[in-house]
Amino acid sequence: MYESFYGLKEKPFRTVADPGYLYLSPKHQQALTFLEYGFMEDAGIVLLTGEAGSGKTTLIRFILQALKQIRKGILPGVVFNVNFSGGAEIVDIVLQSFGLAPKENKTQSLEKFQAFLREKQGEGQKPWLIIDEAQNLSREALEEVRMFSNLQSDEQALLHILLVGQHELRARLRQPDLGSFSQRIAVHYHIEPLTAGEVKEYIGYRLNKAGGGRTDIFEPEAVGLIFQASGGIPRTINLLCDAALVYGFGYELQKIGIQVIEQVLADKGGMGLASAAGTGVAPGGETKPGDGTDNGLRERIEALEARVGRLQKLVETHVAELDKRAKGFREDFAHRLRGLLLSERTRSDRLLIHYTALREKYRGLAEKQTDEPHPKK
């Protein structure tokens, strides 16, 4: 629609989890390092968390593509849909993720799965169970996942697990009744939102990746407002930027200014921009486990504390930017003062020389008049 108008080969701000568009901010690069460590060291349970839309699924898809380069023999079984409740159901879905057909009952399915894992171990392969959106797992399902981590042979784990979820998953795993689960987590990383500078780089990166020769389509003021409205969440940035390009195309604007972003925000009215994290409501409107109890209240309080922490970091970022600008202003002001002082000194020296010359001239005239005889009366 707007691609040719802005010189793009494809839409740069699609919301699908495309590993080809993964922007490796310092946070995402560090998360990737942690994941690589988990895969290389055969860690028991690896936990990756972050806000909804922070890029977790994209990162997982990226590392799945790179597994052959990271370590040979890794066999992934990926579960992207966790909309189930019973323990028996998760066993069947885990089997299916590895291409196995479930048996008639849970016990038979577990026996078949364990035999499969032993076979793969004998072949030198490392099965990894990867569960996305793990914050939606029921208490019973989490217990089954913990039981999976017990599958071992000769003191070697038969199955390694990567859980990916939103920040409330961390809160759930800190509950006392899940202490034995938390103790099995060997590696954990939480992806924080992008900073203002990273949002600017992210937008430029996506535009360049889409084949655009220009990375300055969005004016600095527009980028600043996108940062404020999105909170540094990549998915929300994509939604705002894609809508802004549609508006810009409609108005035939070569550059997207702050007025376009303001109009996008006004027209959206917040729909599709706010994160559901910390609201106590899971996708589909279902209540998350623990709502209406002390644990549910604690989760919401921790979610609120996390948001306050992000706001504090946002304030600190703005203060740092203001300090940087103030430092630059002070240095520029001092440079100008030094220039003015030097100019005044030069001018004073010239005036002094001129004054000295005039004084010598008038002194010579006075002496000449004194030496001349006075006319007789």
Structural features, described:
The protein is of the alpha/beta class and 377 residues long. The chain contains 13 helices and seven strands. The chain has helices at residues 26-40, 56-65, 67-70, 87-97, 106-122, 139-148, 167-173, 179-182, 196-209, 220-230, 234-250, 258-268, 294-371; strands spanning 45-50, 74-79, 126-131, 152-153, 156-157, 160-165, 185-191. The strands form two sheets. Strands 2-3-6-1-7 form a five-stranded parallel sheet, with helices on both faces. Strands 4-5 form a two-stranded antiparallel sheet. A hairpin with a 2-residue loop joins strand 4 and strand 5. Helix 10 crosses helix 11 and helix 10 (220-230) runs parallel beside helix 12 (258-268). The protein is elongated, with a radius of gyration of 34 Å.
Topology:
Elements: H1 26-40, E1 45-50, H2 56-65, H3 67-70, E2 74-79, H4 87-97, H5 106-122, E3 126-131, H6 139-148, E4 152-153, E5 156-157, E6 160-165, H7 167-173, H8 179-182, E7 185-191, H9 196-209, H10 220-230, H11 234-250, H12 258-268, H13 294-371
Parallel strand pairs: 1-6, 1-7, 2-3, 3-6
Antiparallel strand pairs: 4-5
Helix pairs in contact: 4-5, 7-13, 9-10, 10-11, 10-12, 11-12
Key descriptive features of the protein:
alpha/beta; two-stranded antiparallel ribbon; 377 residues; elongated; five-stranded parallel β-sheet
Largest sheet: 5 strands, parallel
State the low-pLDDT regions, or none: 275-296
Q: Largest sheet, order of strands side by side?
A: 2-3-6-1-7
Tell the overall outline. elongated
Number of strands: 7
